[in-house]
Amino acid sequence: MAYEIIPLEAFKETFEFSIELSSVALGGEVVKVSDEFFAEAFHLLKVEPAPSLKGQFGPNGALYSGWETRRHNPSYDWCIIKLGTLGTIVGFDIDTTHFNGNEAPEVSIDAILDTSLDANDLDNATWAEILPRVPLGPSQRHLFKITETERVNFVRLNMYPDGGIARFRVYGNVAAVQPDSPEEVFDLAHVFAGGRVTFISDQHFGKDMGDGWETKRSRHKGHKDWVVIKLQVMENLSVEIGLIRNFPESCELHALYSEDEIPDSDATDWTRILSPVKLGPHRRHFFALEADASIVYTHVKLTIYPDGGIKRIRVHGTKGPCSTPVDLVKLSEVAGDDTTTPLHSAPATPKHCKTIPVLPLTSEAFSAFGQVIQAYGDHTAAPPGTKITPANQGSASKFHKLSLLESSYPASTGASAGLSVYRCNPTEVVNGSVELKVLERHPYTNQAFIPMGGGGIQGDEALKEPGNAYLVVVAHNGADDKPDLSTLRAFVASAGQGIMYNTAIWHQPMTVLDKPMDFTCVETQIGNGDKADCEILELEAGEGVMMLGLSC
């Protein structure tokens, strides 16, 4: 097979937007090796560059971050690697960094073109040469571009006759795995689905710091960084953003339909689908997007302010028009649990119904409507500005004033703050969906609900096993002094999370999802409450009744 030697300075233009199919971050692994006496072959696939271990010794001699075999091999050594995903190969980076005098003098690369074979079939597999025998030099990267192969899932790196290689990277294009149904929700940004980065404004720490994207620190007011991701054509979507500790202060998201592989990141036809939102450190954020369900997109642009790092971005959507609601999280699961997974089917929504995503409750996503009241085991994950102090002689942590009480009642009304208790029975959940029938608001005061857990007085059997989750549905007021249904947001909260609705925010009455729950309600009211305290609006089918599930 023909090949081309690529100078190191041409790496970016040659391979920048190819996928590293062999990376352990994708699931690449060494499955068989002829010899690894001095250094084990798993080092070949590590994400980070090979460090120098000069002066360090083990039982077999000097230590190296790489693969190193015994001397005096009469034939050659080999290492078989299962790629992280099925794909076509366009080139390689064979790195001998820190191997000087003990580097592999020459290598060749073979592949199995029969994609039906698995690791148990390797002994009888037919290998095809995709890079002929080429020379290597000491302590340097060697880049080779080849004619794009057929789809491959195993490669074999051969070195003649023996020696050491620090890193081995296989570049190519993913054979996308997508659902057959155009209505099934999946992560369109996932590399296995064919998503890939096509432009990055800055990636100063993006590769050297391992798994994720991180930019250098900005020194100028108004700075921003951005990344453009090519997706499959999508409709009706939501987004999940996972952050590291060096997190951005805020972010926003735009989308575009373009037939160009790399569209102009400064073009005027980008549509904003997530308004600027504050972010917090070291956790996952979930946001419903402001995308028109009738429009399809091929690219998203994530902009961070002013700089920082992001671990993951997942964009949930479909390949085509969708008529069925799908939940992002199972309503019976506790919000924020990393094991929550998308559901992939639900019955058709009535024609008059619209669907909205049900997302795990986070302080950032809820901030436009109120505050989330909870403790944080990792103090750095608390909302920025939260005062945290030791309490109870060091046996507790106090999170100060996560929310403040507000009231705008006239003094003459004699309104007073107090604590009430609601016992809430579970609502009807049909195939992961809940119908929204009523919204209410409190025009003069904010209102908190704090789950109380189980127990109660002796003989009270109702809450021996209390519920674990409840639904929070909110909307802003519209121009007609009624709920603006385009701003509806739905969240699933755990029993460890309380909420404070801002004054006059429209919200669904307390909606428990699995078992009965008790809530302490903190509010200001006139006497025992009258019509001035609470305004209730019943939604009719013709007014746009909402089914709560993921709008795919």
Automatic annotation (TrEMBL):
Pfam families: Allantoicase, Ureidogly_lyase. GO terms for biological process: allantoin catabolic process; purine nucleobase metabolic process. Gene3D superfamilies: Galactose-binding domain-like, Ureidoglycolate hydrolase. One of its GO terms (molecular function) is allantoicase activity. Signal peptide: none annotated. Belongs to the allantoicase family. Homodimer. NCBIfam families: allantoicase (TIGR02961). This is Allantoicase domain-containing protein.
